[in-house]
Design goal:
The protein contains 15 helices and 17 strands. With 472 residues, the chain is α/β, with parallel strands linked by helices. The longest helix has 37 residues, at 3-39. The protein starts with a helix and ends with a helix. 49% of the residues are buried.
Length: 472
Amino acid sequence: MSARDDRRPTGKKSAATARDAAQDAAAQESLREVYGHIMARAPEHDIDPTLDRVRRVLELLGDPQRSFRVVHLTGTNGKSSTARMVERLVREHGLRTGLFTSPHLTSVTERIQVDGEPLSARRFVEVWEDVAPYVGVVDGESQEAGGPRLSFFEVLTVMALAAFADAPVDVAVVEVGLGGTWDSTNVVDGDVAVITPVAHDHERWLGSTLEEIAGNKAGIVKDGATVVVAEQEPEVLEVVLDRARQVGARVLREGVDLEVAQRHVAVGGQLLDLRTPVALYTEIFLPLHGAHQAHNALLGLTAVETLMGGRSLDGALVETAFADVTSPGRLEVVRSSPAVLVDAAHNAAGAEALVAALDEAFDFRHLVGVVGIMGDKDAESLLAALEPVLAEVVVTRNSSDRSADVTDLAELAAEVFGEDRVRSTERLDEALQMAVDLAEAADPVGVGTGTGVLVTGSVVTVADARILLGRG
């Protein structure tokens, strides 16, 4: 073939590549416009205790949420990781899956996934265009009656359920946004409900006692369903069991019907023996760190067993699925030398699980924290939980307007850590550099082992840091 002939396919390929790039850029611009429109609505933490608006839009759309089976998850910590495990297990069985989780780390498209892949920018815009006329009708009806438009999270819920029906998926794995009873996702009737550990969080919206919080979360348990319950405080368990009795739901309890029989730290994760109501699965590799992730895996496995008719699952399928599980932003190593880890712990319970996992899976002599916390959180308890593992801490703020004031946070940190261990800066990029410098200063040999940086305190802080570090 002549040199001239060689160039022809290259020219065609270049033109196609340029065309694809232009289309992708146009799709991203459309996505930004749609996201801006949705973001202009009431924020997702602003709960209006009614499901009427979402139900009305879904009714106009033909009730897409009734076209697939559902695993519905709530709890205070571990929901997203458990949801990802459930989805991956179901998909390994050859079923088409939908996954709805929140919040996102980099792009809103991450929240709605089909067969393990986030919607493309183009598809996200198409789904919005499909549902927008119906959302507009219900916005008008609500405002005419003196109510609000659909909120940001209500719109995303509608979009997810519509996208799943259109795919179509066989099973949707749906994580609540906040609480349970009045969460927008509670328009689904889960065949299986999963309740991860319940602790104090979002008290402004869910209540000040564990009983109140548990009562809200237990609202996802529906008539005749099965609920898989993590180990809970006694007052939480009592509320969940009472809800199950009211609706005739079957209860599978960790510590009674299921347990983590054994776990061992392994390179890159852990090896698990998991006992469910019908089987014992041995030497299952999970590429995630911490006892909490082992318990999440147990809940996810039991949920999928239940979904599949209460039978034991093929061990090889379970091994393959769990070995492929990811949970971005959950004790994730995003840089080396010095190591930089990010973890989305945003309350005391989450921080305690993080600390236990760090002690077990890593060998840090000098770990520097970068902490940005939301203003409505119990910052003192979170900082106190982190104190034993952090040699120093840099407090900062994230990109959210709800981020805690840095001066106030620094004062709290000084009370917990002592002034000499605390630094502060308004900018996260400066905080990261400051923490890296502190870690490197504690490594006189310069080999990058034994020292590191941990970024935590909020999902938004972690998301911002991942972008700054090139992982977004």
